[in-house]
Please model this.
Amino acid sequence: MEIKAFYPEDIATLASRVSEVWKFDQSPEFTKVFCEYLVRSNYYTPQFSLKLVDEEGLQAIAFACMPGEENDSEAWLQEQLEKLSPETKKYILRSSAYIKRTDEELLKMMEAQPHAAKLSFFFSRKAGYGSLVLEYLVEKLRQQGVEWLYLWTDSWCNWQYYTHHGFDQIGKGLLPEFSSDNEKYYYYLFRKQIG
Model:
């Protein structure tokens, strides 16, 4: 097992792994494009983007970014939208709007905290591997003077993981566009002092 930098050429592999684990109730077309968009929208620089690989390949990742960093995910998404069916395009746009809106809310909270970073993407296929790559990333952030680590997640993910690993929940909101009468869908905002 080895932890090393994640590079743009790893994006397609990670998107495929994500689609295997996160089963969306949408078309294969949606799943393929949306999973790659999730990776691209949260990837900023190899310095704070790590992957854990073992003999079976990529198993876990942890990405972080600093406020104000940008990437090319929106340009990539615009290119993809031109190729999609109208129905898939509608769901992708709704989902990407949710991601942008939640990011903006979290980044606004981070403004009050100097020396903060955002855990932009965290994924693990094997128990224990996520914690290893996250601990490694946190140490790299500490070495750069980061004192606070912020993140958001939602009902689709194991959001309780963060409360069990020292993060404080600092916000929660209902997502009516993804909720139904039978099941409510929430997003959660967290932070943890790391320095």
Q: What stands out?
A: The longest strand covers residues 57-65. Residues 2-193 form a domain with the Aminopeptidase fold (CATH 3.40.630.30). The chain has a mean pLDDT of 94. The chain has one domain: 2-193.
